[in-house]
Amino acid sequence: MPTDSIHRAVDAIWRIESPKLIASLTRMVRDIGLAEELAQDALVAALENWPDAGMPDNPAAWLMATAKRRAIDQMRRQQLQQRKHEQLGHDLVAEQEEGHADIADALDDDIGDDLLRLVFTSCHPVLSREARVALTLRVLGGLATDEIARAFLVPEATIAQRIVRAKKTLAAADVPFEVPRGPELAERLAAVLEVIYLVFNEGYSATAGDDWMRPALCEDALRLGRVLQGLMPEQAEVHGLVALMEIQASRSRARIGPNGEPILLLEQNRTLWDRLAIQRGLAALDRADKLGGALGPYALQAAIAACHARARVADETDWARIASLYAVLAGVTPSPVVELNRAVAVAMASGPAEGLAIVDALAGESLLQNYHLLPSVRGDFLAKLGRHAEARGEFERAASLTRNERERAMLLSRAAACAADA
Fold first, then answer.
1. Which distant-in-sequence residues (6+ apart) come within 8 Å of 376 by Cβ?
2. Do 130 and 43 touch, CB atoms closer than 8 A?
3. How far is CA 122 from CA 132, 169, 297, in A?
4. Measured distance between the N- and C-terminal CA atoms of the chain, rounded to whole angstroms
5. Which helix (H) or strand (E) holds 146?
């Protein structure tokens, strides 16, 4: 196989296997940073050896065996000062000397538990939200530092620093490599789901840059969500989040025009919506409901998305139900952003004047002062009420607040249309 083909194959294998590899190594060495270094060493060894020796029959097992040998060699070289490291070194050397050769079986042992532990460790509350996102994409998403930096439009050095600091923070805090139990599980799970959804949202509606969407981030978040769904099948909110992401992602092809311009929901060609993704999302939503999680925040948002998914044309949308679901969501997770979304649903169900009243009541909310969707929504209501001059000002203000170039162009276009109508 040509070297280029080998390198592409290694990259593909790394994306799939690195989370399991790092998870297993972290269980052994109790240090995410060291585990990732060992996994990276195994990757480098593959890139050096496979072009000449050929692809092994079981690449994942080869990577695991290589990483374990590197761990043993490193522990032999270093004077280990902590007892747990010293004991671990003895255990690993003994395992090697006993000829425990069935690495493929070892790779599968407790791999589900190891992955789950890695998820909760990388999203530990001792880390900042930005650090959790970066570390999760690195160790669970298999993304390189420069890929994460490009996705979030920040310097590569910034992402590298976040990842390094995150590893050091986890080590300094002696964070255990475990899944929390009891009441702590719900709190920590919420943080894990938040990180995954943050990644998805950045892909679905990019906050800055020239692209309206970054589909690769949506795919990474969906992959992480599906992994978590398999690892925690009895957690209703996990299914709720997957349902929400599946249904939203189903619209991806219809959300962008031929020149990359945004296409809003009511203007989308719904024949482009991915019906298989919608079916997966509805199945996940049904699972969340059967587990008693219909009122969870992600399940409620998925139920709202399902209302759109079930409408074959925009005029069939059940806006009254959407408005009622947003009212329930506002009671579960009170937020001015939820109220803003409720205003849109109310306006569609009862008229723009009703929606405008809700939006005007949000004018003093500090969290929305620099939120571009507030003037954007208000501008839409004003335009529908024939108050075009006021609408133009709102669209221009919204354009000044967004950092996404595609969205800015769309808002300025709407402002120009209002100016013409005025």
1. 394, 395, 398, 411
2. no
3. 6, 11, 23
4. 66
5. helix 145-152
Q: Which residue has the tokens 């906050």?
A: 207
pLDDT tens digits for range 254-300: 999 998 899 999 999 999 999 999 999 999 999 999 999 999 999 99
The whole-angstrom separation of Cα 148 and Cα 3 is 26
Give me the helices (H) in 173-293, please: 183-204, 215-231, 236-249, 275-290
Q: How far apart, in Å, are the Cα atoms of 210 and each of 153, 155, 214, 360, 406?
A: 10, 16, 10, 31, 6
Question: Is the Cβ–Cβ distance between 377 and 368 less than 8 Å?
Answer: no
Note the pTM of the prediction, 2 decimals. 0.79
Which 3 state secondary structure label does DSSP give 208? strand
Whole-Å CA distances, 95 to 110, 147, 158: 17, 37, 40
Q: What is the pLDDT of residues 166-179, one digit of tens each?
A: 999 999 999 998 88
DSSP state, residue 262: B
